[in-house]
Amino acid sequence: MGAKMHSMSESCIPNRREAKRHQTALRLQECGLRLTSERGFDGWTIDDLAASADVSRRTVFNYFEGKADVVLGPGIEVDPAKVEEFVAGGPTGGLFDDLIVLAHDVIRERTDEQLITSMREAIVKDSRLLALVHERLETAATGLVECVRQREGDDFPAQQARLLLKLLLTFFDHALDRTADDPGRTFTEHFDATVADARSALA
User: How do residues 110-133 score in pLDDT, each as one tens digit?
Assistant: First the structure.
């Protein structure tokens, strides 16, 4: 999770212009993932991407800084209102359960199941992309650790907070594997099944 905290109004496409930008960015990412699947990450250029998406090279750079950003898409975004609710002790009052609620909010921002599967396939084939994903996840985890400690108090051990976040990230990784093995169910369903299995194993 390379997490920037954006407002929900920014991420929910509040007007036609934002809707068009969102659709263009999504099309660019889909084309980038398709090119990566067909040729490998090193097998295509920004010019190839622009031609595939029927846009100019300049348009690509209006949305993404480079090829890796195209394939991975935007960083994981968490609605500040949801973060505030979490820090205040909500929405359920249970730390672990509330982290799962935040995870669901993140998943809802990436509702295209095929896109999630395509991203996984691209990432596992290229160590550089995998490293960038881990870097994003580490950045997001660091921010959420601070949120956990704000919620639980300064006495809450940072190592325990990091452990919780690493467990959550493991759930994401495992759900991706399950999605690849059983594409007939959605990523969200596999994520929920992973959490349920963990609860059962640790009960």
Answer: 656 677 778 888 887 888 888 888
Half-sphere exposure of 114 (CA within 13 A, CB side): 7
Query: And the tokens for 52?
Result: 């595939």
Domain range annotation of the chain: 8-202
β-bridge partners, 4: 77
Mention every residue, 6+ apart, whose C-beta is less than 8 A from residue 167. Answer: 198
Residue with tokens 């919620």: 151
The structural architecture, per CATH, of the domain 8-202 is: Orthogonal Bundle (1.10)
Identity at 42, one-letter amino acid code: D
* Kind and range of the H or E run holding 160: helix 158-181
119, 171, 105, 89: CA torsion to nearest 10: -160
Determine the Cα–Cα distance for residues 144 and 89; give it in Å rounded to an integer: 14
User: Taken in order 98, 8, 34, 127, is the CA torsion positive or negative?
Assistant: negative
Predicted confidence (pLDDT) per residue in 49-91, tens digit? 999 999 999 999 999 999 999 998 866 667 888 889 999 999 9
46 burial type by CB count under 10 A (0-12 exposed, 13-18 middle, 19+ buried): middle
